[in-house]
Amino acid sequence: MDWDKLRIFHAVADAGSLTHAGDALHLSQSAVSRQIRALEDVLGTTLFHRHARGLILTEQGELLFDATSSMAKKLDSASARIRDSEEEVLGELRVTTPTGFGTLWLAPRLIKLYEKYPDLKINLMLEERVLDLPMREADVAIRMKEPAQADLIRKRLLNIRMRLYATPQYLEQAGMPQKIEDLAHHRMICQTPSTPQVQAGAQLGQQVLTYDQASTLMVNNYFGVLQGVLNHIGIGVLPDYLTADFPNLQLVLPELESVEVPVFLAYPEELRSSRRVTVFRDFIQEEILAYRRQKSTETTEG
Questions:
Q1: Which is deepest, 26, 57, 148, 179, by most CB within 10 Å?
Q2: Which residues, listed in sequence order, are joined to residue 159 by a DSSP beta bridge?
């Protein structure tokens, strides 16, 4: 097996079509087809089932595609490290983070990073699923628990808690709860229980919903919960990092809070020397430090 045939096989398997693979490789369909037949001859097996709608990998083809996918990710990693220079920061950085933290805390702050490094391309992947960093599904992860995968550099950024918040306008109309039982007379806004979410938030949500409220609002992410609260719909279960950017949110029943949730930054050991990863790590640490100072000031003034 030569590298060129494997490269072409990977493109065809990824595209599911000789034509689309040829377009991506700047080769004719017939040239791509010849290379695939030659590779099948070398291996003595059929790699694709051919049908009217395209190509489907055979069992042997799946095995080879797994191998070429791993090779492609390692080559991408090597290429990224080679392109990283001491003077310049450019190219793509793939960052995965939970939807709430990425949307409400990280994204609004990225302008500061772009001001320093205008040629940086950030692919921000907002999802609750834990992406596989060693397999290069992402370059950097921000997670609401310590990563369990090996060969990762990890740093604890801060601890957060889930609390109850509402706007002064809502509380003026509906009244400020004095004890947890008073929540029975308020509209609660929480993440949908079946939605993947931080366990601490789910537990607090379950606790406040035990009072059989006549009306509730369920949303499948914290961005939606926040919008409901900001528009005076009710009392929402939200992470306390939001108070830095939304100072008008009013804390409800201060004694009612979740357990602490650790926030970790993680990236593969092999990207330790990557300039893109380094500047992102430093940026996050600076922003966390500024956030902590602001929280400390608020606590002192309070």
A1: 57
A2: 262
